[in-house]
Write a structure and sequence with these properties.
5-stranded antiparallel sheet; 1 helix; 6% helix; 193 residues; elongated; Jelly Rolls
């Protein structure tokens, strides 16, 4: 099958930006494999294949405030999948987990805002496979004010590994996380390579 001819004038800018006559990268990750001048002047024959993006991962959010018991590590109850490009999230099976389906190096990150309380500490932790602490936020409490917890890490993960978001507070009573649109808890992972 002959490649479809395209008008050279329409793609000249894209080719010039790529700096190569051996291939061109277009917005969104489309790479053309080779570029050949067609017999008709001003036409260009393009051939090759579309390379799939390697950007994989998911992001979860919490829209309903969660009550976290005193002095016990508690799984987060995320209730919204903001995006998921590799079927990493299954809120019905486990609302605190993101599962790896493509091995690689991942950036995992989480944040939460706690309502004001007078005592104790507030922490969040990302755990791997239910056992290994990947990263934990520093203790953040200002008496009588909102407390913010954030953490992130780079981690090499294999198929079947899962990251879990856990919450901890020691105010002396159950404590809510804020879940307003601007400050809702979020948990995400993205494959870098």
């Amino acid at each position: 099958m002959d490649p479809t001819p395209y008008n050279l004038a329409l793609i000249r800018d894209a080719l010039g930006q790529s700096g190569s006559e051996q291939g061109a990268m277009f917005a969104g990750g489309l790479r053309l494999g080779s570029i050949d001048v067609a017999p008709a002047p001003g036409d260009l024959a393009l051939s090759g294949s579309v390379r799939q993006s390697t950007a994989l991962g998911a992001a979860l959010a919490m829209n309903a405030a969660q009550s976290v018991p005193d002095s016990a590590w508690t799984p987060a109850v995320m209730d919204e999948i903001r995006w998921d490009t590799d079927f990493c999230a299954d809120l019905a099976a486990n609302a605190a987990c993101l599962t790896v389906h493509t091995p690689g190096i991942y950036l995992v990150t989480a944040r939460a805002e706690w309502v004001a309380a007078a005592n104790g500490i507030r922490l969040i932790m990302i755990r791997l496979n239910g056992a290994y602490q990947v990263t934990k936020s520093p203790s953040d409490v200002v008496t009588g004010q909102l407390a913010h917890s954030t953490c992130s890490a780079l981690w090499q993960a294999d198929i079947g590994d899962y990251f879990e978001l856990l919450l901890y507070q020691s105010s002396g009573a159950p404590l809510l996380l804020n879940s307003t649109a601007a400050n809702r808890p979020e948990f995400a992972m993205a494959r870098l390579v």
